[in-house]
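Data availability (excerpt). The following record was deposited with the supplementary files.
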Amino acid sequence: MLDTRLHITNGLLESASVWILESGILEPNGGVARYYRSDTRQNARVSTEITGYTLSALRFLHQRGVNQKVLDALNRAALFLTGTAWDRERAIFPFEWEDKDAAPRSAYFFDCGIITRGLLAAWRTSPNQDYLDVAVACGRAMAIDFRGNELFHPILSLPDKSPRPQEPRWSARPGCYQLKAALAWLQLHELTGEEIFRDAWEESLDWSLASHETFLPGDPDHLRVMDRLHAYCYFLEGLLPVLDRQPCVKAFSEGLDRVSHFLRQISPHFVRSDVYAQLLRARVYAAAAHAIPLDPVAAGQEANAASTFQIESADPRVHGAFSFGSKDGSLMPFANPVSTMFCMEALTLWAGCQTPGFQTDWRDLI
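Predicted structure:
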């Protein structure tokens, strides 16, 4: 089997970072588009969630000294979130951003958690008090406004912050995938000591552990099951800080096996690159925490598969990006920032995990 680690060099990081910084996916105002369509040559709308992910990715790149433009981009994206997208009156981030005159329609619990973690990553990289202040304010609002009976509502309607009726799709229902967003509370508790953050985190953890077994497969359509694998991996990522607790280790280990099973079953028809990356990241982080030994064969297969999604092209709008996925063996026409960020992190960690002294920190997880 080809060992992908032999082929992970600064070249992969460099080409991915150039795409993030210079392709136009990071727009002049600092917001990041949800994806770029190579067939229509257009960006999708700016996403506050994806901009939050980008902050975490830019910290990842800055720590590795890959590109001199990273710090400027990080501050530009953070200032977009705190100065443009942030609704200070309601203490919330809207789902997508178009302009200040467009009425926001909804806010997602998951998005707010990812943005909060991104702002904390920006603050740890380029200390600006407003980054931290907005992160704390958003975390408090999440714990109050999204709270329901024994769960956290996935979507609020704006401007009144009323819970939106649930829909069949997984992202419009509460679920164990919300645990990754809840990591923001754990980080905020570490920084502030506020009990509201600790209590919200523990509540989310308990509910996720009690409900995760019913999340997969969750749909008779195998194409939708692939999307649910992506979401379930968020649950696994949310468990990373608590792999010193036996129930969490058990759920994590069983979850790895379930995702692997469905991924092998469905991938010949449809596969998302981020699922390979998320599964690989989960293995490496868990092994680094001495919680679950790394399966080098499975990890190597996932690394090899993830690496095939990076795009080589004369077109700078797509070169270096990772495609969202493939159907029936053909790459889909979506140069996707989250796929790119997850894959570049996973492949870099895989390349370095056998290096003496290798360490990871769940707080840096993109």
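Summary of structural features: Residues 4-364 form a domain with the Glycosyltransferase fold (CATH 1.50.10.10).
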